[in-house]
């Protein structure tokens, strides 16, 4: 599903950015190759030259989105020396209503989940993203164990549980912010993380 060889990086980025914004705003089922081309200021043929099908284009969009989220998560967590603060900062960023993640990221995340339930390509993309996220959290957990800050938990299992709890909190917050405000989301994640990880 990769774009054809010889693509121009700037034009390819235009297409991805246009599709990303349209999918976040309208959902992938309402987005066409023509609408992406119009948004990008290109012809339909130009888009099809790089991405011959909607599925190829949408897969590239989700890959780019997940890459951005992963890299930004690593950057934010790396600012902290305390392993627990790394995990806390991750949650604080996810539940910040002023960031592009809240405005664009969550619609894309939910859109990919929806397609992953029925289409193998998107299921694989989502699975890879979850594994990357688990790996990131596992690194912070292993560091906390080495430093004696965390209990001697199983890093892999705990990272998977923590990522699942975080995803659940994030979905509840995004879809019902009045009933589950950002402060609730941050405190709930912190309470869970501290309860599971901190030494008694």
Contiguous low-pLDDT stretches (5 residues minimum) are none
Mean pLDDT: 90
- Count helical runs: 9
The fraction of residues assigned to DSSP E strands is under 5%
Residue share in helices?
A: over 70%
Quickly give the CATH architecture of the domain at 59-197. Answer: Orthogonal Bundle
Structural class: mainly alpha
CATH topology of the domain at 59-197: Tetracycline Repressor, domain 2
CATH class annotation of the domain at 59-197? Mainly Alpha
Task: Tell me about this structure.
With 200 residues, the protein is mainly alpha-helical. It has a domain of 139 residues: Orthogonal Bundle (Tetracycline Repressor, domain 2). It contains 9 helices and no strands. The longest helix is centred in the middle third of the chain and has 27 residues. GO terms for molecular function: DNA binding. Keywords: DNA-binding, Repressor, Transcription, Transcription regulation. InterPro entries: BetI_C (IPR039538), Homeodomain-like_sf (IPR009057), HTH_TetR (IPR001647), Tet_transcr_reg_TetR-rel_C_sf (IPR036271). This is TetR/AcrR family transcriptional regulator.
